[in-house]
Design goal:
about 15% strand; two-stranded antiparallel ribbon; 3 helices; alpha+beta
Length: about 80
């Protein structure tokens, strides 16, 4: 069971990652909208809830995905959470 726990984020880690992703979206000129969806949008989240976000982009999707993938890779080398 402890091995499975090691694979899970704590609620605090999850919330920090969500805030970080929203901050990154705010800083990216190619992201023109962001929405929190899922259980967090209705304040029904619990400790098992995941992060559900949707983004509207003005740049070509492939370019945005490439940029975000590279950013996450760079960040994961400096952090245990990847974001």
């Amino acid at each position: 069971m402890s091995e499975q726990r090691d694979l899970m984020f704590s609620v605090e880690e999850r919330d920090r990652i969500q805030r970080r992703l929203l901050h990154l979206a705010e800083q990216d000129p190619g992201v023109v909208a962001a929405a929190v969806t899922g259980s967090h949008a209705t304040n029904d989240e619990d400790r098992w809830s995941d992060i559900d976000l949707a983004f509207g982009v003005s740049d070509p999707l492939e370019a945005v995905m490439r940029r975000w993938t590279q950013r996450c890779i760079r960040t994961s080398r400096r952090s245990t959470t990847g974001i």
